[in-house]
Amino acid sequence: MAALLLPPLVPLLLPLLGLLCLGPAGSLGNRHAVHWNSSNPQLRHEGYTVQVNVNDYLDIYCPHYNASVPEGRVEQYILYMVNLEGYRTCDISQGFKRWECNRPHAPHSPIKFSEKFQRYSAFSLGYEFHAGQEYYYISTPTHNHRWACLRMKVFVCCASPSHSGEKAVPTLPQFTIGPEVKIEDLENFNPEMPKLEKSISGTSPKREHLPLAVAAALFLMTLLAS
Length: 226
Fold this sequence. Notes:
Residues 29-160 form the Ephrin RBD domain. Keywords: Cell membrane, Disulfide bond, Glycoprotein, GPI-anchor, Lipoprotein, Membrane, Signal. The chain is an alpha/beta fold. The protein has a single domain, classed as Immunoglobulin-like (Sandwich), CATH 2.60.40.420. It is built from three helices and eight strands. It has helices spanning 10-22, 84-89, 210-225, and strands at 31-35, 49-52, 57-61, 77-82, 95-101, 112-116, 134-141, 150-156. The strands form two sheets. The chain has a five-stranded mixed beta sheet. A three-stranded mixed beta sheet has the order 1-3-6, with no helix packed on it. A hairpin with an 8-residue loop joins strand 7 and strand 8 (150-156). Helix 1 runs antiparallel to helix 3 (210-225). The longest helix is centred in the last third of the chain and has 16 residues, at 210-225. It is flat. It starts with 9 loop residues before the first helix and ends with a helix.
């Protein structure tokens, strides 16, 4: 059987395909999970802190119930990102709406929202986070429940290796958005907000690089066929 003759560029492109499938190493962070409901006792008291690094992800899992649980017994929440005062007093006027857990009977699995703690956003109006600072999340229930306030603090610990020489100076908590954003638009603007659908496993951060890898594979197949 005659050996398959590959175009001269194909051997050089095969390693590139492998790198594309892996995605850029610096963009992959660890994932941290928080189940946002009143049965999580840590959320019911001030002081609960999740420590993350730059480029890490925080996955918020909404309350989830099977179809046999009636609407009157399920928990639903609106989550806000607030400043320190809003966190201490559970005052949603000190921030803006981030996510809404309003599908407690979602099929198969709970709704999941993900926050990426990135220094620079690919979106001109996106969120940016800074090492050495704290960020605050609280929620208000849209149901009748005795736990009126759930809250969480996130501390962004360390810079990524490319920024390891920078000194992280703790400052007043803040978040950065693009200069064109008006404060009244923040409630409706959320570039990172996933569609309300079945949750994606948190063990697969490379999913975001799949389209690029598929395009590279199709390109190689075209070369092989020529």
